[in-house]
Automatic annotation (TrEMBL):
<comment type="function">
    <text>Catalyzes the interconversion between the alpha and beta anomers from at least three hexose 6-phosphate sugars (Glc6P, Gal6P, and Man6P).</text>
</comment>
<feature type="active site">
    <location>
        <position position="266"/>
    </location>
</feature>
<feature type="active site">
    <location>
        <position position="161"/>
    </location>
</feature>
<dbReference type="InterPro" id="IPR011013">
    <property type="entry name" value="Gal_mutarotase_sf_dom"/>
</dbReference>
<keyword id="KW-0413">Isomerase</keyword>
<dbReference type="InterPro" id="IPR025532">
    <property type="entry name" value="G6P_1-epimerase"/>
</dbReference>
<dbReference type="GO" id="GO:0047938">
    <property type="term" value="F:glucose-6-phosphate 1-epimerase activity"/>
</dbReference>
<feature type="binding site">
    <location>
        <position position="80"/>
    </location>
    <ligand>
        <name>substrate</name>
    </ligand>
</feature>
<dbReference type="Pfam" id="PF01263">
    <property type="entry name" value="Aldose_epim"/>
</dbReference>
<dbReference type="InterPro" id="IPR008183">
    <property type="entry name" value="Aldose_1/G6P_1-epimerase"/>
</dbReference>
<protein>
    <recommendedName>
        <fullName>Glucose-6-phosphate 1-epimerase</fullName>
        <ecNumber>5.1.3.15</ecNumber>
    </recommendedName>
</protein>
<comment type="similarity">
    <text>Belongs to the glucose-6-phosphate 1-epimerase family.</text>
</comment>
<dbReference type="InterPro" id="IPR014718">
    <property type="entry name" value="GH-type_carb-bd"/>
</dbReference>
<dbReference type="GO" id="GO:0030246">
    <property type="term" value="F:carbohydrate binding"/>
</dbReference>
<feature type="binding site">
    <location>
        <position position="85"/>
    </location>
    <ligand>
        <name>substrate</name>
    </ligand>
</feature>
<dbReference type="GO" id="GO:0005975">
    <property type="term" value="P:carbohydrate metabolic process"/>
</dbReference>
<dbReference type="GO" id="GO:0005737">
    <property type="term" value="C:cytoplasm"/>
</dbReference>
Amino acid sequence: MAVQLTDTEVTLSLSDDPNTSCKILLYGATVYSWKSQNIEQLWLSKAAKLDGSKPVRGGIPLVFPVFGKNNSDDFKDLPQHGFARNSTWEFLGQTQQDPPTVQFGLGPENVDEKLYSGWGSNKDNDFTLILTIALHHTYLKTSIDVINNNDYSWDFNWLFHNYLQVNDIEDTLVSNLAGENCFDQLLNEHYEEKAPAVTFIEELDRIYNQIPEERMVQVIELGKVVHSIQRENLPDIVVWNPWVDKSSSIADFQPKDGFKKMVCIEPGYVKKFVTLNPGETWSASQIIKRNEPLTLQSV
Ligand SMILES: O=P(O)(O)OC[C@H]1O[C@H](O)[C@H](O)[C@@H](O)[C@@H]1O
């Protein structure tokens, strides 16, 4: 069976290749495992909670309606990264057989009242989120539709918080960001990226912004491309590795040297807010690919 459902999660697998599969928790609609030909592609903390008691540390948590903490009136009462990752989504069903494709939905009725009331000055922003996940032989596609059901407009951020698995972060490069604008969240500074590729030797937390859509960001290990990310309507890319001190301060980050095995590459719309008008739908997607050729688009 290509799609299996339990009370808490959905599993997709390819009928002609059962070793290619992904698992999605209803909690947060979080993809917490994606295996391609039996090789796990996503990093998941050994201490990640999969019981709905807190957002999943690993996989692909979803960030909505705010990225990080924001002190403006409409967002200051929300938790870090909003409430999509800590709400239980509805499974809407399978929409396609081949490739296996499923959808999940979230609306105000699914969100804890206290969390929801932290958003917006009207306190009744009526939204629908539809998440679509499609599993292919060599890639995983996640797409989001955000619908405004109100008769007034409101603002939001969206981000796919991908925790990608690597063998050794010190052998890992992230390419195709040279020459782009970056906001360094640790230095609290904007600058132009001068390095031909992003390397990791300490904690790193940057928002690369307004990256042209044709730019394919690639994660390269010892000269081999391990992940490539294609984006639609997601102009910003957060690159994060917590390294030693930050990992040790995160209770559900295990093992403590797990930062060596992961890099977060997070396509989103976070440097500015999307303003969504009444009745309108905003759509975006990402495709995470394996085994792509090296594409040099900036050096
Ligand atoms: O600990 P969390 O709330 O899941 O956030 C984890 C990380 O998310 C993003 O990558 C941010 O850029 C980081 O500043 C943050 O530390």
